[in-house]
């Protein structure tokens, strides 16, 4: 119970007070919670889509620098069983299971990591809005004992709390992109773009929401300018990635005039 209380104290947010976010601040929290869990190392990684064709990766870790250099220089991510698992599942994965059931040693990421002093560990897949995928790993030194059930349960709990920070990470990444704008689309602009995303023409949208085709074009043009987009297609893409439009947004407006 003591560990859970300490974890909550470090990671749970005060809903009544706005907390200023920074990657350095999150890294500090990860150091603190890793110590509470009695692990040696942590790794928090998030892939943030900035367009439909490109993503930026954010990595916060205290793993040995020689291992991180090897991982990056040899593009281990592309055959990393842990990363592949996290893309396809939300269930935590124990590193010891990968050692038993994974690929040949030359491609087994856990065995490769052990050459750099990392021992047993656990990885928790993370999900967030707008297509963000991530993971949180905790591990010990090579000579440490196998993880206890309590350690794996607490690590999974920490993952559920850390996931709440991913949208903050996404915003930090997105605001550094060239041409970034904080869009504030009106409801009319959102509805028109949402129907464009459904493949509707301006005329079809006008019939659905009860206004003129010219009005629809006006709202789509305004939305495109706010999103710094050069076409309808790009406007829809940016609106989806920024959360300016979301699935089922227009359900209340179907068949109703747009007032």
Automatic annotation (TrEMBL):
One Pfam family matching this protein: GerE
Superkingdom, natural source: Bacteria
UniProt key word DNA-binding: yes
GO molecular function: DNA binding
UniProt keyword DNA-binding present: yes
Biological processes per GO annotation: regulation of DNA-templated transcription
Gene3D superfamilies recorded: Transcription factor LuxR-like, autoinducer-binding domain, Winged helix-like DNA-binding domain superfamily/Winged helix DNA-binding domain
Family matches, as PANTHER family: DNA-BINDING TRANSCRIPTIONAL ACTIVATOR DEVR_DOSR
Protein name: Autoinducer binding domain-containing protein
Organism: Vibrio qingdaonensis
